């Protein structure tokens, strides 16, 4: 008995979590970096300068990634919080929101043009609720956080990784960059 040869149909299995492996499209889920190290720098600015140099030298920068190593969260204190500062900030943010809502209300007003009534109502209401929410938020902390701060994620070093097929060329180019004097204006 002879079997007929039928072509086998290949049906790709897809998933909402699968990476479509399209060039220039980052993976959807956090993925560990891959590649060979071609440079290591103390600051992000230096790593960025290295990648910029590679781009100028017509290197395939799509094969390159900058990886921050030994991450840390740095919180810089920007000032002390007081009731007056909290209430002023709350009133200001409420005023902006109220002004925005008031202007939106004038768009749907039957009267043509900007009328003062909805804008003033939105502004006053926004200031009131901004004050209330700021006071409740600050009061509920009960002095446990009486300062303002800004947080930043930084790394101890920044490695430039490259796809293995072009890593040697990348290392050679970055060696040329290392031989150049650093120009503070660039």
UniProtKB/TrEMBL annotation:
Disordered: annotated span: 1-32
Pfam families in the record: YflT
Composition bias, Pro residues: 23-32
Annotated keywords: Membrane, Transmembrane, Transmembrane helix
Domain General stress protein 17M-like: 38-111
Record field: transmembrane: 86-108, 120-141
Name of the protein: General stress protein
Organism annotation: Lentzea kristufekii
């Amino acid at each position: 008995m002879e079997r007929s040869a039928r072509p086998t149909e290949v049906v790709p299995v897809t998933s909402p979590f699968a990476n479509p492996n399209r060039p220039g499209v980052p993976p959807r889920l956090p993925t560990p970096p891959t590649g060979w190290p071609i440079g290591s720098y103390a600051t992000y600015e230096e790593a960025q300068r290295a990648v910029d140099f590679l781009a100028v030298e017509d290197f395939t920068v799509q094969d390159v990634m900058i990886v921050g190593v030994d991450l840390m969260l740095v919180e810089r204190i920007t000032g002390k919080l007081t009731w007056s500062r909290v209430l002023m900030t709350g009133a200001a943010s409420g005023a902006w929101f109220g002004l925005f809502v008031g202007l939106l209300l004038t768009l749907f007003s039957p009267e043509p043009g900007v009328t003062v009534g909805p804008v003033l109502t939105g502004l006053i209401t926004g200031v009131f609720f901004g004050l209330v929410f700021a006071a409740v938020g600050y009061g509920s902390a009960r002095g446990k956080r009486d300062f303002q701060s800004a947080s930043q994620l930084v790394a101890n070093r920044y490695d430039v990784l490259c796809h293995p097929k072009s890593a040697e060329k990348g290392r050679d180019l970055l060696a040329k960059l290392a031989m150049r004097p650093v120009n503070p204006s660039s």
